[in-house]
Amino acid sequence: MKYRFLIYINHDYAIPIGKPLQEEILKRGYEVKWFSGLEKPKKLFPENGDLINRIEDAISYDPHIVLTATDTVPDFLPGLKVQVFHGFPANKRKGTDQFTIRGFFDLYCTQGPSSTGPFKVQQQKYKSFEVIETGWSKMDPLFPLKPTKNDKPVILISSTFTRYYSLALIDEVVSEIERLSKTGKYKFLATLHPKLDDSVKQKFRELENENFEFHDTTNLIPLFKQADIMFSDTTSAIIEFLLQRKPVVTFNNNMPGHYLIDIGQVSEIEPAFDRALESPGELIQEIDKFAKFSHPYEDGNSSKRVIDNTIRFLHEDKSHLENKPLNLIRKYKIRKQLGYWTLKTYDEAWSLRK
C-alpha cells in the first residue's frame, strides 16, 4: 500500500525534525507532503519538500498519517494524528506544561524515558491515545557519534527566546563573549532561537571576527558536531548537545542538574569554559546518565521506528480508546488561525483496514 503522510509544522525550527522523517518515507516509496499553519516557514519550500499551501488542499490530500511537530493539529484533518514533538522538555516553566494533553493526538512517539514516563501517566488518565517510545527524528543525523578534533577549543553559543532565561539579552554576558573572542583563546560559533528579535541577531552579527561566527540557522547538528562544549541558558538544544557526551556550561539555568556546569556571574564564564574543556570524569558520567534518560537511541534510526510504529498503529484495532475531549476553545482557535470554519471533527482515533 502506498501510504500518504502529511508533516504538519508551524515554525521553521520544525523542518529539521521533519526532514529525517521525509527521507525515511520517500525511501519506502510512500508519499509525503508538508503543511505549515503559519506563513513564515512557507518561504523555505520547495527546497525542503512538497508544501501544500491551503488547508483545503491538505484535506483533499486525504493523508493516512499526520506527523505533527506542533502542540496542536486541526481536528478536522483526516488521518492518524501523531505527535513527534518540537523539542525536548527544557523545564522552562518548572511544571508539566510540556506534558499537557490537548486532546488532538491518537499517538505520541516519545523521545526516551524522560518523556515516555509522564505521557504514560497521562495515557492512563485520558485513555484516548497510545504512547510508543521511538526516539526523536531530529537526532538521527547526529549519529553515529564521532570524536571532535579542533586545533583551538570551539564553543557553541545557543540561546532561548524566553526573556527570563535568554543569555543573548544580557549585555554583560554578550560583552564578555566579545572580549573572550578577541583573546584568540577560543573559537565561538553562535546561534540564536529564531523567535528572538532581529535586533538581537544583528547584535551578534556585529560580534563577528576571526574567532566568532554567527549562524542564522535552525539546522544545529552540524554545529553540534564542530563544537567541543556549549554555552547556553535554558533551552532544549542543551539536551540535544548533551547526547554527544560533551559538556555544557549554562548561565542561570532554570533547573540545573549535575550534568551541567551552571554559573550565575559573568566572572565565572571563562573558568567554567576551561573546566568544561577538561571533560571531568564525574561530569561525563552524569551527562551519560542524563543522555540515556532523555534519548537512549544512538543508532540514527528513530525516524524508522516512528514510521514503522505509525503504520502498524494505523491498522490496529483502537476500539479500547475513548473519544478525544470536546476541546471547543482550542478547536475554535485552530479554525481562526487557519481561516477555515467547519463543524467537521474526528473525535475517534483514525484506523485503516489493511
From TrEMBL:
Top-level taxonomic group: Bacteria
Pfam family membership, one: Glyphos_transf
Source species of the chain: Christiangramia oceanisediminis
GO terms for MF: CDP-glycerol glycerophosphotransferase activity
Gene3D superfamilies given in the database record: 3.40.50.12580
Protein name (Swiss-Prot/TrEMBL): CDP-glycerol glycerophosphotransferase family protein
InterPro entries registered for this protein in UniProt: Glycerophosphate_synth, TagF_C
GO cellular component: membrane
